[in-house]
Automatic annotation (TrEMBL):
Lineage, opening ranks: Bacteria, Bacillati, Actinomycetota, Actinomycetes, Micrococcales
GO MF entry, a single one: formyltetrahydrofolate deformylase activity
Purpose of the protein: Catalyzes the hydrolysis of 10-formyltetrahydrofolate (formyl-FH4) to formate and tetrahydrofolate (FH4).
Family designation: Belongs to the PurU family.
Stated name of the protein: Formyltetrahydrofolate deformylase
Gene source species: Kocuria oceani
InterPro entries named in the record: ACT-like_dom_sf, Formyl-FH4-Hydrolase_C, Formyl_transf_N, Formyl_transf_N_sf, PurU, PurU_ACT
Its EC number(s): 3.5.1.10
Length: 306
């Protein structure tokens, strides 16, 4: 991957809000673009931003020689009167000129719906990062097919909805989930060890808006007790993969992977503990990068501007 810092920028993973001399915070925006590589793209973008009084704070670019595409992410501030709707309307001409697929975002934090079953390590990590202000989004509610994690969610002040799932009620449960997504203006559904397989219809409805976490032993150690299987085979690496949800089980576009080295002294319980650490790390990074609009979906893969 080639990252070209072609503009004078201040590259900050989480830049502090720009402020005027009077201490008023300037509005912040992120523009992401994918299009065929051609002359004049960066010039057109910077010219557009200059015309709207914008100040670029971070710019990242990836030129993909295999597919002939260019991917860009530009974070910028604007004058107080600049609105997202104005940018969206006025950028259409530039986008059409270059055949761009693009998204413009303001500083509104994405709203998250977290789904869990009985394992609480990923939910606990997400809550901690959310309360510390490092998740990039706002957790709106927690949904589960069990009651086990209600105390954890409610201790953090989060609504907890119990939606039981059985073969007979699966369709109704999934429709209830979609209703909640609409009712609470949810931008991202996070499957934080939610131990249910989503239907193809639900995966399609949530395309690009749902992230799952699984242990990277798949597909080598399928089924129950994967860490026991791993122990029997003497694994040396424990990993986890965060990916977008698709109808192909655990084969969606990968956002992040975490790997931790282990050895023969790790019994199944120790392997499980290490695996939970890897799952929590990979999932929280993927969620944060998605919320910061650092992940560009491209077919079955992703471009991640970290």
């Amino acid at each position: 991957m080639t990252v070209v810092d072609s503009l004078p920028t201040s590259v900050q993973p989480n830049p502090a809000p720009a402020a005027t001399p009077e201490g008023q915070t300037l509005p912040q925006f992120v523009l992401t673009i994918t299009c065929q590589d051609q002359v004049g793209i960066v010039h057109a973008v910077t010219e557009f931003l200059l015309a709207h009084g914008a100040n670029i704070k971070e710019h990242q670019q990836f030129d993909d020689p295999v597919h002939g595409l260019v991917h860009l992410r530009t974070a910028f501030t604007g004058p107080h009167e600049l609105r997202l709707e104005t940018l969206e309307t006025n950028f259409v001409a530039t986008a059409d000129r270059f055949g761009m697929r693009y998204r413009l975002h303001d500083q509104t934090p994405p709203r998250l719906l977290v789904m869990v079953s009985k394992g609480g390590h990923c939910l606990n990590d997400l809550i901690f990062r959310w309360r510390a202000g490092g998740l990039g989004g706002e957790i709106a509610l927690v949904v589960s097919n069990h009651e086990d994690l209600r105390p954890m969610a409610e201790a953090a002040g989060l609504p907890y909805l119990h939606i039981p799932v059985s073969p007979a009620t699966k369709r109704e449960a999934e429709q209830r989930l979609l209703d909640l997504v609409e009712e609470h203006d949810i931008d991202l559904v996070v499957l934080a060890r939610y131990m249910q397989i989503l239907s193809d219809d639900l995966c399609t409805a949530l395309k690009g808006r749902a992230i799952n976490i699984h242990h990277s032993f798949l597909p080598g150690f399928k089924g129950a007790r994967p860490y026991h299987q791993a122990y029997e085979r003497g694994v040396k690496l424990v990993g986890a993969t965060a990916h977008y949800v698709t109808a192909d089980l655990d084969e969606g576009p990968i956002i992040e992977q975490e790997v931790i080295r282990v050895d023969h002294t790790h019994d199944p319980r120790a392997l499980s503990t290490v695996g939970q650490d890897a799952e929590a790390l990979a999932l929280s990074r993927a969620v944060r990068w998605h919320c910061e609009h650092r992940v560009l979906l491209e077919g079955s893969s992703t471009v991640v501007f970290r």
